[in-house]
TrEMBL record:
<feature type="signal peptide">
    <location>
        <begin position="1"/>
        <end position="18"/>
    </location>
</feature>
<dbReference type="GO" id="GO:0005975">
    <property type="term" value="P:carbohydrate metabolic process"/>
</dbReference>
<dbReference type="Pfam" id="PF07983">
    <property type="entry name" value="X8"/>
</dbReference>
<dbReference type="GO" id="GO:0005886">
    <property type="term" value="C:plasma membrane"/>
</dbReference>
<comment type="similarity">
    <text>Belongs to the glycosyl hydrolase 17 family.</text>
</comment>
<dbReference type="InterPro" id="IPR044965">
    <property type="entry name" value="Glyco_hydro_17_plant"/>
</dbReference>
<keyword id="KW-1003">Cell membrane</keyword>
<dbReference type="InterPro" id="IPR000490">
    <property type="entry name" value="Glyco_hydro_17"/>
</dbReference>
<dbReference type="Pfam" id="PF00332">
    <property type="entry name" value="Glyco_hydro_17"/>
</dbReference>
<keyword id="KW-0325">Glycoprotein</keyword>
<dbReference type="GO" id="GO:0009506">
    <property type="term" value="C:plasmodesma"/>
</dbReference>
<dbReference type="GO" id="GO:0098552">
    <property type="term" value="C:side of membrane"/>
</dbReference>
<dbReference type="GO" id="GO:0042973">
    <property type="term" value="F:glucan endo-1,3-beta-D-glucosidase activity"/>
</dbReference>
<dbReference type="InterPro" id="IPR012946">
    <property type="entry name" value="X8"/>
</dbReference>
<keyword id="KW-0378">Hydrolase</keyword>
<keyword id="KW-0472">Membrane</keyword>
<keyword id="KW-1015">Disulfide bond</keyword>
Length: 500
């Protein structure tokens, strides 16, 4: 049964996996129970994710990705950078072992050389471009240079004065690296790779950046940030950072290098001062980000120019050091269950389906309470819903308000009607959601929590007995403590622009 369902999901997902969605995921592996590569691929396929970035070139992962249609960015880890930058032969050997051995069955599209080298391994900065060139030379020798691009991901902190974006520039300390790097990217048709974290900009701004602006939520028109030089309107931090990168490149006379956002995300849990690392904010950020990217909205400077974006990250990494938030950037637990269900209705198939495939009916927020009460009365009366759980002392009595109670009753009716279309309307005050509204002991009908045996967990990936990590090398850096440092000047500008 479980196997059949899995197979079904697999086939179902494969058939929907046609369009290139521009959305990818990062797969960090600092995880106690890393799922097997096959399980990882099954999850990706069930979620229609067709772009992935790996922080290394793990053999079993590369094998598992063969014939999946998934496009891969693989990485030269920072600890191999020095060796590769010092010898053509080492680079050639790396390409032979980690690329040529798997391509084309495994669709490696890009090699990321190092990770945030300028900010996390500055001593290696002088050899970064040589490493890229040696890898490129090896690809040419292997006749793979047209299919596979070479680049290197940067922290967006290397761009200074990000607001207004039109005044942004690369930290001049790094010009001796950035200029030859941009020349290389331009001559090979490769993208600038950037890690973009509005979360850190928001946290470090001490309240200057409004949360809604970081989360892509609608702002009042008079609160939108306007770049006084270009008169471009910025409705979110993400676009401002990406445009800052375009402007920083054009300041150096590079105007035709595309940008790929290699990391972006929001943590769903934190402690101490990490008040805004919540499931709600993480869901809002990632849902809005994905919609924004899939829409091909582009940025104010380059509207309609798609910016492929890799969500940080697929799994929560429980063994990462640092504050609690560091372990909670994932969309999924390692057993394959979602940490939260993204709100992506209408965004196409990608990530739109919770692996448990549940839908619920709930009361809309901000609707007329009298209409809700009338609909609640109807559901528990003529609608013949069992509303006994809503009685005082029963598990769904609290919170005792009409929104919570009608959500329970509407959902019970919707489930009773087999989720038939039209059974979640109630004169417009109800809506379908993929987020399980159950809380505590109040379990909503249709919730997987009410039925552990029915197989809702069939797509959950059992923790693997074998880990894919070698366990000792830090596979990637995530130097969150030093994200974009909006300087005092840009903060003041932001205050002026946002609040005037
Ligand atoms: C890899 O993916 C790209 C983008 O979908 C596609 O154009 C290319 O043909 C694929 N290459 C291989 C070898 O499958
Ligand atoms: C490295 O190899 C490429 C071609 O494979 C060659 O063009 C380049 O000159 C070599 N560089 C060195 C330093 O040997
Ligand atoms: C520019 O980069 C250098 C080297 O990492 C760093 O010391 C300096 O603080 C940076 N400048 C700014 C304004 O952040
Ligand atoms: C960019 O091009 C302009 C005009 O050709 C030139 O004046 C300027 O010096 C160039 N800037 C850089 C950094 O090369
Ligand atoms: C995406 O585009 C649709 C229609 O084109 C629009 O309604 C929606 O607001 C857009 N979403 C985002 C996040 O830009
Ligand atoms: C689940 O995905 C299918 C296509 O893969 C889509 O038609 C359906 O609307 C999605 N369900 C939800 C609740 O988003
Ligand atoms: C998921 O739900 C949709 C809509 O209710 C249904 O068409 C589809 O068959 C379900 N998929 C699975 C695997 O249960
Ligand atoms: C799925 O399995 C996990 C543990 O493996 C469990 O915590 C969770 O409650 C299960 N979910 C459902 C919907 O049964
Ligand atoms: C739980 O599953 C059993 C069959 O496995 C089914 O008969 C029962 O109605 C389910 N209970 C709920 C609350 O859905
Ligand atoms: C994987 O697990 C099997 C059985 O548990 C064991 O025999 C094998 O040595 C493990 N492989 C690795 C690489 O740990
Ligand atoms: C940002 O830069 C300023 C000045 O360069 C420095 O005083 C401040 O500590 C930095 N803030 C962060 C969070 O790095």
């Amino acid at each position: 049964m479980a196997a059949l369902l899995l197979l079904f999901l697999f086939l179902f997902a494969s058939s929907a996996l046609s369009q290139d969605s521009l959305i990818g995921v990062n797969i960090g592996t600092e995880v106690t129970d890393m799922p097997s590569p096959t399980q990882v691929v099954t999850l990706l396929k069930s979620q229609n994710i067709n772009r992935v970035r790996l922080y290394d070139a793990d053999r079993s992962m590369l094998l598992a990705f063969a014939h999946t249609g998934i496009q891969l960015i693989i990485s030269v880890p920072n600890d191999q950078l020095l060796g590769i930058s010092q010898s053509n032969a080492t680079a050639a050997n790396w390409v032979t072992r980690n690329v040529a051995a798997y391509y084309p069955a495994t669709n490696i599209t890009t090699i990321a050389v190092g990770s945030e080298v300028l900010t996390s391994l500055p001593n290696a900065a002088p050899v970064l471009v040589s490493a890229l060139k040696y890898i490129q030379a090896a690809l040419i020798t292997a006749n793979l240079d047209r299919q596979i691009k070479v680049s290197t991901p940067h922290a967006s902190t290397i761009i200074l004065d990000s607001f207004p974006p039109s005044q942004a520039f690369f930290n001049k300390t790094w010009d001796p690296v950035i200029v030859p790097l941009l020349e290389f990217l331009q001559s090979t048709g490769s993208p600038l790779m950037l890690n973009v974290y509005p979360y850190f900009d928001y946290v470090q701004s001490n309240g200057v950046i409004p949360l809604d602006y970081a989360l892509f939520q609608p702002l009042q028109a008079n609160k939108e940030a306007v770049d006084a030089n270009t008169l471009l309107h910025y409705t979110n931090v993400f676009d401002a950072i990406v445009d800052a990168a375009y402007f920083a490149m054009s300041y150096l006379n590079f105007t035709n290098i595309p940008i790929v956002v290699t990391e972006s995300g929001w943590p769903s849990k934190g402690d101490g001062p990490e008040h805004d690392a919540t499931v709600e904010n993480a869901n809002t950020y990632n849902s809005n980000l994905i919609q924004h990217v899939i829409n091909k909205t582009g940025t104010p400077k380059h509207p309609g120019v798609p910016v492929a974006t890799y969500i940080y990250e697929l799994y929560n990494e429980d063994t990462r050091p640092g504050p609690l938030s560091e372990k909670n950037w994932g969309l999924f637990h390692t057993n394959g269950t979602p940490v939260y269900t993204l709100r992506l209705a209408g965004a196409g198939a990608i990530l739109a389906n919770d692996t448990t495939n549940q839908t619920f009916c709930v009361a809309k927020e901000r609707v007329d309470k009298k209409m809700l009460q009338a609909a609640l009365d109807w559901a528990c009366g003529p609608g013949k819903v069992d509303c006994s759980e809503l009685m005082q002392g029963e598990s769904c009595y609290e919170p005792d308000d009409v929104v919570a109670h009608s959500s329970y009753a509407f959902n019970a009716y919707y489930q009773k009607m087999g989720k038939a279309s039209g059974s979640c309307d109630f004169k417009g005050v109800a809506t379908v959601t993929t987020t399980d509204p159950s809380r505590g002991t109040c379990v909503f009908p249709g919730s997987a929590k009410s039925n552990q045996t029915l197989g809702h967990n069939t797509t959950a990936l059992a923790p693997s007995a074998n880990s894919t990590t070698s366990g000792c090398i830090p596979h990637h850096y995530h130097p969150h403590a030093s994200s974009v440092n909006l300087t005092l000047l840009s903060l003041l500008l932001l205050i002026a622009l946002v609040f005037l």
